[in-house]
Amino acid sequence: IFPANSGNKEITWMMLEAGAETDVVNSVGRTAAQMAAFVGQHDCVTVINNFFPRERLDYYTKPQGLDKEPKLPVKLAGPLHKIITTTNMHPVKIVLLVKENPLLAEVEALQKCYRVLDLICEKCMKQKDMNEVLAMKMHYISCIFQKCLTFLKEREDKLDGFIKSLLKGRDKDGFPVYQEKLIRESIRKFPYCEATLLQQLVRSIAPVEI
């Protein structure tokens, strides 16, 4: 809790990587993220809420049960983990992270990655300590990966075309309509309708016209 309260993002991250538990509470029943938010250290809250232990992803690099092959090739774990733990959720940033890594920017690789993200999303929602924020993040990245697949398969300009579509503004005011529709579509497709976070997002977005 102390690194989070001090506002030191680097030390907070180091402690998380060393195995610090994010759901442990102090004497007044607050987690590190809640205490950091209480004292205004929102950067540290972001670090904590976006943390996903590498070993949880590595689980999918080993065959499970009756599977003969792992769901995620070992070579994809590092690049995927980098995207999962990013705090910049802008769709262009995520596509750029895919584009900069040749291992990820392939149809088969992205198919494997988005399926693993969907499994992590499901686990976040069905585990004892439900994590709606992380589940929504995994679903959102999965949706962007699936849209990357569409451009890789159907467009000659591939991911460059996707980035251009995300950045293109409409004529009258420059508003990026395609980007807005992509984000709204990902929210609409979130499979767990009972999630409080989803209901809050829908209430906030539904009355707002594009």
From TrEMBL:
Name of the encoding gene: Ankmy2
Cited SUPFAM superfamilies: Ankyrin repeat (SSF48403)
Name listed for the protein in its UniProt record: ANKY2 protein
Top-level lineage group: Eukaryota
PANTHER family: ANKYRIN REPEAT AND MYND DOMAIN-CONTAINING PROTEIN 2
